[in-house]
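Objective 1b. Sequence-to-structure analysis of Iron complex outermembrane recepter protein.
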Amino acid sequence: MKFNHFLLGILFMIIGPAVMNAQTIKGVVMDENGQALPYANVVDKVTSAGVTTDGNGNFEIKVKGFPVTLIAKYVGFQNKNIEVTSASEAIVFKLDPSNSLDEVVVTGNRAKTRTVLSSAVPIDKLYAEDLKSSGQVTFDKMLAYKIPSFNSSTQAISDATAHFDPADLRGLGPSRTLVLVNGKRKNQSALVYINDTPGKGEVGTDMKSIPFSAIERVEVLRDGASSQYGSDAIAGVVNIILKKQTNFTEVSLTSGVTSEGDGFNFGADLNSGFKIADKGFVNFNLSYLNQNKTNRAAKPGKDDLFGVAANDPQWGDWLSRNPDLGMTIGQPDSKMGALVVNAEYPLSDNTTLYAFGDVNIRKGTSFALYRAPYWVSDPNNLLHDAGTTYNGFQPTFNTDVFDNLGSIGIKSTVFGFNADFSLTAGSNKVDYTVGNTLNVSLGANSPTEFNVGGYTFSQLVGNADFSRTFDKVTFGFGTELRKEQFEARAGQEESYVGGGAQSFPGLQPANALKKDRNNFGVYTTLDYDVSEAFLIGGSIRYENYSDFGDNVSWKVNSRYKLNNDVAIRASYSTGFRAPALHQIYLSNIQTLVSGGTISNQGTFNNVDPAVIGLGVPQLHAEKSQNISTGITFRSGPNFSASLDFYHIKVKDRVLFSGEVGFDGDDTTTNPVEQVLIANDITSMKFFINAVNTITKGVDVVLNYKNLEIGTGKLGLSLASNIANTKIDGQIATPAILEANGYDIFNRKEQGRILSARPNTKVLLGANYDLKKTTFMFNNTYFGEVTWQHADDISKDQTFAGKVITDLGVAYKFTSTISANVMVNNLFNVYPDKLDPKGDVVTDLGGRFKYAWEVNQFGFSGTTFTAGLNFKF
């Protein structure tokens, strides 16, 4: 007892004076019209201690003494400082809406934060509410409807690709956009997109792995940044900043369905947090999303149904009962659960410990080509009951995805430099199961479900970053150590023996491997504010990879303010992208459509003797040159505009080759076919550095806020991207292949990097705030795309540009309860229908109504979505 009293006495001696001297300040935070801003942050500038306003915008904060400077912060508004000299009267903060060019960004500069206006390179900044207003349910689709140069759309009949949806920036492919979380490198996915979709042959980041409800904002740097961040940043950088709020809990419920009655989805998100000893914080986010499949298969009714005529006497009855040939073509079934945590704790006035991470689990089911009974028989009644009519089967492709990221670090001051030391680990694991199928060669002993193997990609990254501002000069430097590992796991034996499981023969033991590499990088940056108007800067980075060698990239940029409202900017940079471990070591056998039939083809890795025998060199880094120039303009607090031109040259792009095969004549004297015969191969594909591209484009962004219309306020935005990519020079075909007439990258494959994505996209948005109601209107123009035939230009097809209209309304019942309703694709717009032009392979005998190899915005049609949001 005495000991307890002693402890209490010591505790009182420590904190008693502070408690006795603490002063309470009361106040309110509101917008420029006097409307309360609930859950705004009010912070003591010196101690960083802060509170959050209640549902009516009121707050109470304790301070040690006077005078004290308080800062009020609220998303979408400019911060405001007030010096308080006494607690005698309530403090009123009136916050002005922030102009988009006044927004502070941290991406694109490793040392000093700048606003969008003062940045020397173009950066977009989107808050969670901006993303939500798109009406989309996944983060990648939200970005696609908010950033004109960002592309992502649902893929169908594409195995695991259907669960990742390749996303890219400026049409340069998924591999050339670097994704960061809180400024730290996010791991790539384990999947290589080897199906006939945009991004074929590339490796991207799993953009579905972080739920948007955990995101405070996203900063998209539309400029090459390899000299600052390393590999992959040729097209730009997407930096995802996680939420930090702690003083309330937010629960969101959403649900939607298409006008066809399919594609039902339900999502639930919970975001909350708590403070640690009134100094640090922990924010956590739980998310769940269940999304059902859609089906937009065609009903052919043609003479040639890819394997049998429509009037065939043997199959006519089956064809009349199955006008869609049994196909399911659309978005897959999927379920997702995710946990995201973000935390910080100040150890002292200048030292802060931080940590963040996420775990994402997804299970999905997509569909392969329907095995019509005239393609594949089932004599042992494995997939149908004995005595019943055999109707064929559609194999399912089940994907289990486990993605996780964790980072821990400490920010402090070392010899006057701001220092940031961190360790980040991340991995993406994909396991495949093929169901509702069989292995014909096993007869009655065939399973009907197969574990066909899987892949894992993981990385461990250590960073040390330093920066310091000396008057007008900001200097930074740092180092990065990274270890990457790629693993391929074999499937069960029954999945690959004989002809293998229908739709996806399993990975064989010969395909299984575990490979890793190490990377070391150092960089330095320097910004010089010659005057308040004139900024020049640059950076240089050296990288060394254990598997292919080193690289040096650099950048120079400048910005000049003609006045407080107009600035011009320009940059020139070199960049690089290291070939992914997946692209170096991936090998498998896959069932694909080739030559008018279904056949197995092999992907052989870059170190395989057969590939080396064909004269294919070891993969090396892609190199890039990026030139950009632009102008920014604002007029008052409400209008802003930016115009940026860019020219990106990429040398030695890694591509996935076309098929190299032979006709089965073992007496051939063709040296290529002799290599294939010697390695017991009938056909093969491989990865190779073989093409140079030039991409030119322009980005335009216009914003107008707070236009008074009646008793409400209107906000307007117009953003567009116009770009064009062309192949520069000849395809670098190995000599032995070129001499024998092999085209490793035909017109069809070239089309995937030239015209599979819209070269023009325009976003026109309007928000009208009327008291408690907000009306949302978005028009998105997706420009034309072109599918190129492999060798016959007369069979090319261009799909016209389309406008997708979204209309929504949100209503605040109280300061803590709100609801929203959104209609996406209001006018039920679909892409142009496929015209096979006499080539049955183009639409597989009428099975596909819409193109799947080039893609503008998917083909789900109108979707209705409703949501409820609670804060407490």
